[in-house]
Design brief:
Blueprint: E1 2-9, E2 18-23, H1 26-38, E3 42-48, E4 51-52, E5 55-67, E6 73-89, E7 95-102, H2 111-128, H3 142-147, H4 154-162, H5 166-197
Helix pairs in contact: 2-5
Organism: Gaiella occulta
Protein name: Lon N-terminal domain-containing protein
InterPro entries: Lon_prtase_N (IPR003111), Lon_prtase_N_sf (IPR046336), PUA-like_sf (IPR015947)
């Protein structure tokens, strides 16, 4: 097991996903400063009122977008490998912990689910009018590459992060994308009806 710096946050970072972070607490400025200097990752784990989750993601700083005069930093991090947090350790101003890597089982996604997931991706892009480049169908861990392009709730992203079967994970992602697409379509239908006759008929 390795000891790494741990950054508990109210978000989940998926492998291959990039997210912006604003760093202002002195202890985490120290952590991020070391990671930038040493070109080393830190461990990002989801934390809420229920505590810190066991499965997290190694986060690499890929860009420093702004350095403020008071020391604050705006950065972009990218998710790499997953890890399991065995225990928190002490001795630094920031959290540290003993971790080991988490690998997928040998359970690849079904070809039909790959096709379905990519079709749902394009459907969501069309429905929302956003410009998002899809990952290639042969991308390793396609489920993470697709899920990281949508703003799912942290609990749902953690569910995907915890799953070690790409087959199960991609199938679950398809379910989530179908629900999201149906919600967007219902909202568009309600908005259209409201514009035509001034009445809204909520979906059952």
């Amino acid at each position: 097991m390795n000891e790494i710096g741990i950054f508990p946050l109210g978000i989940v970072l998926l492998p291959t996903e990039q997210v912006p972070l604003h760093i202002f607490e002195p202890r985490y400025l120290e952590l991020i400063g070391e990671c930038i200097e040493q070109e080393a990752p830190f461990g990002l784990v989801y934390a809420d009122d229920d505590g810190i989750r066991q499965i997290g993601t190694l986060a690499a700083v890929v860009e420093v977008t702004e350095r403020f005069e008071d020391g604050r930093l705006s950065i972009v991090v990218e998710g790499h490998e997953r890890f399991r947090l065995h225990e928190l350790t002490e001795g630094r101003s920031f959290h540290t912990g003993l971790v080991e890597s988490v690998d997928d089982e040998d359970d690849p996604a079904d070809a039909a689910d790959v096709e379905r997931a990519l079709a749902l991706f394009h459907r969501m892009v069309e429905l929302t009018g956003t410009e998002v480049t899809p990952p290639p169908a042969h991308a390793p861990e396609l489920s993470f590459a697709l899920a990281g392009r949508f703003d799912f709730a942290p609990d749902l992203k953690q569910e995907l992060l915890d799953e070690t079967s790409e087959r199960i994970r991609l199938r679950r992602l398809c379910e989530l994308l179908e629900l999201a697409a149906a919600t967007v379509e219902r909202r568009r239908e309600i908005a259209a009806r409201a514009q035509t006759n001034g009445k809204v008929h909520p979906p059952e």
